[in-house]
Specification:
160 residues, alpha+beta, 14% strand
Length: 160
């Protein structure tokens, strides 16, 4: 099994090559605006799943998926040239719904902000007025306790 650092490097290279190929070399009119979101390379380097996202209706996304499947061979050969490894992972394109989910969550948060303008959301929340911040707590821990005796300057010299 290759080291995780090598897998990450190869995933990044596959991501870059596939994105560049889609941008410059694939001229399929069925393909909409496609974003490569991530690449997951198998531990044995035999398979690579390329996750993609696209704007549009479900029908447009299905059409884009078919166009990506048809372009897999060309993209695979470009990846093979870039990787320069003994074997090239078999590419599989898979739709990534995370962008849609993120947009849906953002819509929900925006709706909550409009309904409750005075209540901050957890990401907007500021510390309560009576609480101490982390820096205040750190400053307080550096100060000696009120009843603690002052350390002698000679104590440091005795420890050597």
């Amino acid at each position: 099994m290759p080291p995780p650092r090598r897998i990450e490097r190869l995933q990044q290279l596959i991501h870059e090559v596939a994105a560049l190929a889609l941008q410059r070399d694939v001229a399929d009119p069925r393909m909409g605006f496609v974003t490569i979101t991530r690449v997951k390379l198998g531990r044995d380097l035999a398979d690579a799943t390329i996750y993609w996202s696209s704007l549009g209706t479900e029908a447009q996304k299905r059409t884009t998926g078919r166009a990506l499947t048809d372009a897999t061979g060309m993209i695979q050969s470009m990846v093979a040239k870039a990787l320069q490894t003994r074997t090239t992972p078999k590419l599989l394109f898979r739709y990534d719904p995370s962008m849609v989910h993120a947009g849906h969550l953002e819509t929900i948060f925006e709706k909550i902000r409009r309904e409750r303008p005075d209540e901050p959301l957890p990401t907007d929340a500021a510390p309560a007025p009576d609480s101490t911040s982390a820096t205040d707590a750190a400053d307080a821990s550096d100060a000696p306790a009120p009843d603690a005796p002052e350390p002698d300057a000679d104590d440091d010299d005795d420890k050597s």
